[in-house]
């Protein structure tokens, strides 16, 4: 009987702990963008523009880990310098939210972008768009599409981030691994698992004390 109870307890513990590994894996919200300007020369701007459509909720795109020959920066609209080399670009309230990185072309550039906001919990069709452009010193498009740039990100409510490196010769996008976010049921299983761990530990301690006094 004792062996059977021990076996059942171990099975329950294994099931509960296995449940803690289950979760809702949200699509990635962080990305690495590599921009190739080896076919370009002179000075210009690596620019990012973020805007929303209609009633899209607030979203922030944080840009960090910028590499390449960047000599300065300027901002327009809802853009904040969080720390040296780190910028937070909002998708509203207006459409003119720009981060312009002054660049010397002819080499490789890269940056990370992370999207934050409640868009996964929202319902609707109104989206937000982050566009990546390569401009000359007069803000004329040097590569890609004059309206959509060399790459863009579409933030869709309830769906996540849809990426598009429209011109692979100039830009590539790599998703950074998503983080597992436990669902409420998984959280319950995790708490159950922890409870069983504590119960098992108490039983082991009690048996050890009984054996010592026997």
Helix content: 10-25%
Determine the N-to-C terminus distance.
21 Å
Overall pLDDT metric: 76
How many distinct folded domains?
1
Topology as a string of helices (H) and strands (E): HEEEEEEEEEEEEEEH
Number of strands: 14
| Spatial strand arrangement across the major sheet | 6-7-4-9-2-13
Amount of beta strand: 35-45%
Radius of gyration: 25 Å
> Mind summarizing the main beta sheet?
6 strands, antiparallel
User: Structural class from helices and strands?
Assistant: alpha+beta
Bulk shape: globular
Poorly predicted parts? 1-25, 179-212
- What is the count of helical runs? 2
Pfam families: PEP-CTERM (PF07589)
Organism: Massilia eurypsychrophila
Domain Ice-binding protein C-terminal: 180-204
Signal peptide: 1-26
Structural description of this entry:
This protein is α+β, with helices and mostly antiparallel strands. The chain has one domain (25-181). Helix content is 22%, strand content 42%. The protein contains two helices and 14 strands. The protein has helices spanning 2-19, 184-213; strands at 24-25, 30-36, 43-52, 59-67, 70-76, 79-83, 86-90, 98-104, 108-117, 128-136, 151-156, 160-164, 171-176, 180-181. The protein has a six-stranded antiparallel β-sheet with strand order 6-7-4-9-2-13, with no helix packed on it. Helix 1 (2-19) packs antiparallel against helix 2 (184-213). The radius of gyration is 25 Å and the shape is globular. The model is unreliable at 1-25 and 179-212 (pLDDT under 50). It comes from Massilia eurypsychrophila. This is Ice-binding protein C-terminal domain-containing protein. Residues 180-204 form the Ice-binding protein C-terminal domain. InterPro entries: Ice-binding_C. Residues 1-26 form the signal peptide.
């Amino acid at each position: 009987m004792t062996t059977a109870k021990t076996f059942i307890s171990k099975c329950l513990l294994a099931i509960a702990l296995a449940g803690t590994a289950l979760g809702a894996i949200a699509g990635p919200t962080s990305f690495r963008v590599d921009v190739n300007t080896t076919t370009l020369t002179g000075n210009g701007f690596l620019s990012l523009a973020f805007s929303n459509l209609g009633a899209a909720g607030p979203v922030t795109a944080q840009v960090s880990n910028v590499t390449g020959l960047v000599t300065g920066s300027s901002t327009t609209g809802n853009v904040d310098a969080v720390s040296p080399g780190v910028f937070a670009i909002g998708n509203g309230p207006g459409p003119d939210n720009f981060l312009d990185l002054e660049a010397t072309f002819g080499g490789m550039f890269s940056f990370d972008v992370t999207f934050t906001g409640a868009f996964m919990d929202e319902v609707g069709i109104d989206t937000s768009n982050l566009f990546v452009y390569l401009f000359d010193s007069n803000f004329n498009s040097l590569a890609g599409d004059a309206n959509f740039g060399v790459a863009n990100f579409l933030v869709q409510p309830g769906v996540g981030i849809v990426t598009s490196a429209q011109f692979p010769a100039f830009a590539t996008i790599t998703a950074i691994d998503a983080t597992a976010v436990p669902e409420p049921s998984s959280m319950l299983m995790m708490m159950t698992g922890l409870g069983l761990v504590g119960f098992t530990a108490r039983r082991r301690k009690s048996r050890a004390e009984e054996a010592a006094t026997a």
